[in-house]
Write the structure tokens for this entry.
Amino acid sequence: MRVAVIAGNCKMNTTVSEAIQLVNEMRQGLDEIDSVDKVICPPFISLATVKELIKGSSIKLGAQNIYFEEKGAYTGEISPLMLADLCEFVIIGHSERRHYFNESGEIVNKKIQAALKVGLKPILCIGERLEENETGRTEEVVAEQLRSSLAGIDYLGGLVIAYEPVWAIGTGKAATGEWANETIGFIRRNISQKYGKRVTQDLRILYGGSVTADNTAEFINQPEIDGALVGGASLKASQFLSIVKQTSEIKQVR
Ligand code: 13P
């Protein structure tokens, strides 16, 4: 059985002191729930501070991006080695990076390879845009994103996939549980064709896009969905805690 994951993507929100406050508000509550992997992904500048704050707890840390070179003259970038020293997970290929920063499938692929090389667990984000959804191209789009992101990669390590339909991100219009379940089922079958059943059975695939404490159960109750990548609701300690708590009650694995 797969252990559920609830990851909070703070995006470009929270100053260092706000991140400290947020983590302080939810640290104890999160630590008490041990049947779910709880991952906080604050901005880069808060990683070291948050790492200290969650020391000794069961909370895990993730970054929101990575560069694929190990070190050198890449002003402003953060390398895999720097992150491996701080955290366990790294979000790669988020639609905001693909769209605002022109990250291609090739770049996403290089980042995944770089992360896996240093033992980081990538949270690979894929998902279709509204017009692709409306023209029935979802499966084609996510299959292509999987193909390009994972090209040449034989070993997935602790990779997690997040299915985040672009039209559901930050819009308050979440997908239905049924839709997310069907698409995630498709993603799992697609991965199975390349990596085999064994790998796929252990692969955790999350839903992301306007997840809140109010709609968590709709997603987590679905058999294919192993958790959630939470944006806006991760900025409110009570919401995030409730999402994690509900998930642990629905998916009791450990
Ligand atoms: P929201 O939960 O704010 O819709 O964001 C989802 C997301 O993009 C998480 O990575």
The longest helix spans residues 177-195. The chain has a mean pLDDT of 97. The pocket of 1,3-dihydroxyacetonephosphate is lined by residues 9, 94, 164, 169-170, 208-211, 229-233 (CB under 6 Å). The CA atoms of residues 114 and 219 lie 31 Å apart.
